[in-house]
Design goal:
By secondary structure, this protein is mostly beta strands. It is built from 2 helices and 111 strands.
Length: 1175
């Protein structure tokens, strides 16, 4: 038996037999007592041992405890602990390190410590440093593959612990892994990436101290813990480049990343900010990154479960392409040194489809986001193309400049919308995605929209409308969260520029404008003008920008004074004053005195809102084209004019044309005299001729080609158009001038374009003729041509009956003009139609009907109305609606403004019949045991009109007992039902009787109980029913020991078995009394025999665990001498027959273990022992 036990224990504890401790006593690179020798011995001791390397170097000075390496140390294998805190002497500064391992020589690639193909390695209290700095300035250049601790295919690795943290500096990567099978790496209490530990550098380990570029760089490492559950387990990160960079080339099986209680981006005092100068990467990066060994250009996802909690992070966190959940809680994202040129967002999550939580519903899980050190146009939280991220109850203060400090770049329709529409001192309300959760916050005092103090939670209804009622003490902003877990940005002013109208300034004036921008979520607005490098200037405090000059303008919306958002674009206004540019014009001079000159090629700059014309010497407009031809000698002006309503300036280009050869007809001094009353009294004089030969040909012709004169002066002509033809004896062709117009002084003309004729009314008069123009007329007379009477002496004539009318106009020149007769027709009824009406029939035989006209085809103010009752023929109303009428036929008439009347509506109202009861299918359920369980159902009410029907059951005392068509829970008695239909009509049923039946109730069921001696028992009914239960001491006792409605009784402490009796009662009925035994036991235990003889004689053939008391067996297991399981059961009825896999086992001693639960106390019973198998 002793031999068997020894072999069994050896198999269980063999791994603890050969552990050794190696002590480092020398700071030399190699040789006896050195770290190199200790590692070699530990590696040689086998991987099954747990070896410890301790330090006891006699040198106690800081620089004397430095191990200067000349080559790399051997890689650590499994089950090795290196503990630098065992070295006597003070720690390096405020760190935990007491031993420094240092390499100052050039190496193309170097790891101060390397763990390869190993399990269960721990590294404590070391200061690891690579000090070759000359490579920054000369050859050989410093390598990029320099590592403090390199992990290669290593599992269950611990780097640092509370009070045992390491210091790593001078390398490129403090902790690095890029192998295929690393797992369960725990990094705690370390000081990574910081420079000098001391106030005075001369007492540090080197004259020149170097940072690390990346404190932790891990690729393909599964189950990573950085920091821990307590602040003492957190690491301190001080690299000016990067703190943590984790990625994997595998999409699945990556496990978790837990980053907790770390201080990231601060100096040793945990207060001074590290000046971070890597503007291309985030300080903490999980997922795609150009600074991780994994190829960042490849697009795939990694299934890390990320928990980033309880950290102090003045810098920035980026999580990208993570396909499992992300939790970010209880962190402090404080101010830092990065400007807007670097990664400005404090938490950036990109393409993480499963989503996660930032903050949470518990206030204790909130993150704190507190301002950047420099002016920041970035958001605090950026969510890009990711799954449902819930962002709740965080504190944001002065992180961004404008808009929501939460920014979401997502094309999914799942992202909710929220807007605040109105805020008062007692409520705030707004709109959102329907049925969303709305969280309200008080805004901070800076200009962005970011929730600083949590206010309340409300819910939006199915229309997306929500309201919070309560005291409001500041600016409120909101987020919306859907049932899927998507949270919106903070509410902010937003703009719609689809209909924006931009008017550019002109004429050097401030007459530009930007208007018709739509906005919501703001109570005020302002425009800022930017003119670099000048300071921006606020130029307007309204939504529409008017009276603006040239410049670049940006619109801002303000909610509550502190939530400001800008429009997503700026607008540039330019002075667009039109200019006539004559630099490229082509001028053709006239010849032979002809009108064959031309001007082409003139250009208008800024001509978007310009008009132009050509003007000759007489001020006449001769063309509105850009080019002009048919010009004779003279001066011509091209005038371009700004046509905007508030501009009006103009620019002029002047051209002088001269005759190149032959005679010239001079028209600059022409004088035109108008005719009078259309008579031959007009003239054209002042034209002269030069350079002409004797006896020239002269002729004036009118617009019809008729010759009207043969001298240079044209006299005594009628009003009309005339031009001169001139030809001398030379070779030049005939000169023909443009037409000149002789006007008509005193002439009268009728202008009919705006004439309006109003028909005469049906009741007489009311007709009119208006809008005729008569330029030149001074006196007017209207005559009725049928009656020959004068009806008016002004251009507009009113109140005319139907007929024909003629207008005569005269003036002081003696001119007269007569207009052809104008007809004033007789008016007809102006039709009006009913477009929408609703009739409510009278009900219950009352005059409670109505007919309401909701909408007509025309304005009812232009008509008079009357309703006629067709039964009596009398007028019953003179308004459009009828009230309190009986059922019947009604007619509506309308009279228009001309007094014309017509019937426009015929209405028939028919009411519903009265409701009635049908008792055919009615069922009455009797009351049971006077418990009020009776019911009445199956009663039918006919002729209900639809809509809401009110039912009211009352008992014989008039007490209300039900409000539905069927009535339940009724005690014995008489009942009536009153029904009120949707018209208000009431009908009452006959009395209906509910009888009572008594019966014997079902017996309650209880299990027999077992308890420990001197303890109480709990009796629990197995078939609970509504009613009450009574506990008796005997079957004939009259007074119960206990009574309740649950059927659960607790007895006093019992020292002996006890029999109780329980009865179930409901109303006046009861069950039989049933017995319930309570058995008392002294203890609870399990007994296992020490021997058994499975020989088939029916005696002691099975080895069983035997319960004493109330026990539940968890597992009973039997082992052979080699520790192999030969039998196992979880049931007391099961036993071992001495075989394994159908074969008889040898006689001898076997080991057993047992685990069970005491069901009376809930405690666990664990036993072990041996049993002899005999045959």
């Amino acid at each position: 038996m002793r031999k068997l036990t020894a072999v069994f224990l050896l198999s269980l504890f063999v791994q603890l037999v050969n552990a050794e401790t190696f002590v480092v006593t020398s700071n030399a690179d190699s040789g006896p007592g050195t770290l190199r020798e200790a590692i070699e011995k530990a590696n040689a001791n086998g991987t099954a041992t747990n070896d410890v390397i301790r330090f006891n170097m006699p040198q106690l000075g800081f620089k004397d405890r430095v191990i200067n390496l000349t080559s790399a140390l051997p890689a650590l294998t499994s089950n090795i602990t290196i503990d630098g805190t065992t070295q006597p002497g003070e720690t390096y500064g405020s760190t935990h390190a007491r031993v420094c391992i240092k390499m100052d020589l050039y190496a193309p690639s170097f790891s101060v410590l390397k763990v390869a193909d190993a399990v269960d390695v721990k590294i404590f209290g070391l200061y690891l440093y690579y000090g070759y700095w000359e490579g920054f300035f000369s050859y050989p250049l410093r390598s990029k593959t320099l590592y403090g601790i390199e992990l290669e295919n290593a599992n269950r690795i611990t780097i640092g612990a509370p009070g045992k943290g390491n210091v790593i500096n001078g390398v490129v990567h403090a902790i690095y892994s890029n192998s295929d099978s690393c797992r369960d790496v725990r990094i705690q209490s370390n000081f990574l990436g910081l420079k000098s530990i001391y106030t005075y550098p001369e007492v540090d380990i080197d004259d020149v101290l170097l940072n690390v570029e990346s404190c932790i760089t891990l690729a393909q490492v599964k189950d990573i813990t950085i920091g821990g559950d307590t602040p003492s387990e957190g690491n301190l990160f001080g690299s000016p480049d990067r703190a943590i960079n984790i990625d994997s080339k595998y999409s699945t099986g990556n496990g978790f990343i837990k980053i907790r209680h770390n201080v990231i981006g601060l100096e040793f005092d945990k207060t001074t900010l590290v000046d971070v100068y890597d503007f291309w990467d985030y300080y903490v990066n999980i997922g795609r990154s150009r600074n991780n060994p994994v190829d960042y250009s490849k697009e795939f996802f990694i299934d890390y479960r990320v928990e980033f909690t309880d950290n102090e992070l003045p810098s920035h966190l980026r999580i990208s392409h993570v396909s499992d959940s992300v939790i970010i809680q209880r962190n402090r994202f404080m101010e830092d040194f990065r400007s807007t040129t670097g990664p400005g967002t404090k938490v950036l999550i990109w393409r993480s489809p499963k989503g996660g939580v930032i903050g949470g519903d518990e206030p204790a899980n909130a993150n704190l986001f507190f301002k950047k050190k420099k002016y920041n146009y970035f958001s605090s939280v950026y969510l890009g193309e990711s799954g449902p991220f819930t962002v709740l109850k965080n504190t944001f203060e002065c992180n961004s400049v404008f808009g929501s400090t939460i920014h979401i770049n997502h094309y999914s329709k799942d992202i909710p919308f929220v807007q605040i529409d109105e805020t008062t001192s007692t409520y705030v309300k707004g709109r959102s995605t329907p049925n969303a959760r709305i969280d309200l916050y008080y805004d901070d005092d800076c200009t962005a929209c970011e929730g600083r103090i949590y206010l309340a939670k409300v819910a939006a209804d199915a229309k997306g409308e929500w309201q919070y009622n309560g005291s409001i003490q500041g600016t409120v902003v909101a987020t919306a969260t859907t049932a899927l877990g998507y949270t919106s940005e903070f509410s902010k002013p937003i703009f719609n520029t689809d209909s924006v109208v931009i008017v550019q300034p002109t004429c050097g004036k401030k007459n530009g404008s930007i208007t018709n921008i739509k906005a919501e979520g703001a109570e005020s607005y302002y425009w800022v003008r930017h003119e670099y490098p000048k300071t921006p200037d606020t130029v307007s405090w309204s939504l529409d920008l008017i009276d603006a000059g040239p410049g670049e303008y940006i619109l801002h919306g303000v909610h509550g004074g502190t939530c400001v958002n800008t429009i997503y674009q700026s607008y540039v206004l330019q002075d667009l004053t039109p200019k006539a540019e004559k630099h490229w014009t082509d001028v053709t001079q006239p010849s032979c005195g002809l009108f064959n000159g031309a001007i082409n090629g003139i250009v208008i700059s800024n001509g978007q809102n310009a008009g132009w014309k050509w003007i000759n010497n007489q001020g006449q407009t001769i063309s509105s084209d850009m080019s002009v031809s048919g010009l004779g000698p003279g001066t011509y002006r091209f005038v371009v004019t700004d046509t905007t309503s508030r501009g009006g300036c103009s620019d002029t280009a002047i051209f002088v044309l001269a005759n190149l050869s032959g005679p010239t007809v001079h028209t600059d001094n022409i004088r035109i005299a108008d005719a009078i009353c259309g008579m031959n009294k007009g003239s054209l004089t002042g034209i002269t001729v030069s350079n002409a030969s004797a006896s020239p040909f002269i002729r004036w012709i009118d617009s019809l080609g008729n010759e009207v004169g043969s001298a240079l002066d044209l006299l005594n002509v009628k009003p009309g158009k005339y031009r001169l033809q001139f030809k001398d004896a030379g070779l030049c062709d005939t000169i023909t001038t443009p037409y000149y117009t002789v006007g008509d002084t005193g002439g009268i003309n009728f202008v009919m374009n705006n004439m309006v004729t109003q028909p005469a009314k049906c009741e007489g008069g009311g007709g009119s003729i208006q809008g005729i123009g008569a330029p030149g007329g001074e006196s007017f007379l209207w005559t009725n041509t049928g009656a020959g009477t004068t009806v008016g002496s002004a251009l507009d004539v009113l109140n005319l009956p139907a007929g024909n009318y003629q207008l005569t106009a005269t003036n002081s020149y003696g001119c007269t003009k007569i207009l052809s007769p104008v007809t004033v027709p007789q008016a007809a009824f102006d039709p009006i139609h009913v477009l929408d009406a609703r009739g409510v029939p009278a009900t219950c035989g009352l005059s409670n009907g109505s007919y309401t006209v909701n909408r007509f085809s025309k304005d009812t103010g232009l008509y008079d109305f009357r309703w006629i009752d067709s039964a009596s023929g009398s007028v019953i109303s003179r308004v459009t609606n009828l009230f309190n009428i009986s059922n019947g036929t009604y007619i509506l008439f309308a009279r228009d403004s001309n007094g014309c009347e017509a019937q426009i509506l015929h209405v028939l109202l028919l009411g519903p019949p009265m409701p009635s009861f049908d008792y055919t299918g009615m069922q009455v359920k009797p009351d049971q045991c006077l418990t009020g369980s009776g019911a009445i159902s199956g009663l039918v009410v006919n002729n209900l009109p639809g809509g809401t029907t009110v039912y009211e059951w009352t008992d014989s005392n008039g007490q209300r007992v039900g409000n539905a068509l069927a009535a339940g829970n009724l005690p014995q008695g008489n009942y009536t039902l009153q029904v009120t239909d949707s018209w208000g009509c009431k009908v009452t049923s006959a009395a209906i009787t509910v009888p009572n039946n008594n019966t014997t109730l079902t017996n309650p069921l209880y299990d027999e109980q077992s308890i420990l001696k001197n303890t109480a028992a709990t009796l629990m009914v197995k078939n609970p029913q509504a009613g009450s239960y009574r506990l008796f001491d005997s079957p004939s006792a009259t007074t119960p020991l206990q009574q309740n409605t649950t059927g659960i009784f607790t007895t006093p402490a019992l020292s002996a078995d006890k029999l109780y009796w329980v009865q179930y009662v409901n109303g006046v009925c009861a069950s039989e009394r049933v017995p319930v035994w309570v058995k008392v036991v002294d203890k609870t235990a399990v007994y296992v025999p020490t021997a058994f003889s499975p020989n088939g004689d029916g005696k002691n053939d099975l080895l069983k665990a035997i319960p004493i008391g109330k026990v539940k067996l968890t597992r009973f297991t039997v082992y052979d001498r080699w520790g192999g399981i030969v039998f196992s059961t979880s049931n007391f009825s099961g036993g071992w027959n001495g075989t394994y896999q159908g074969k008889l086992l040898e006689t001898g001693v076997y080991v057993w273990t047992l685990k069970a639960v005491d069901e009376l106390t809930g405690t666990t019973i664990e036993q072990k022992g041996t049993v002899a198998l005999l045959r």
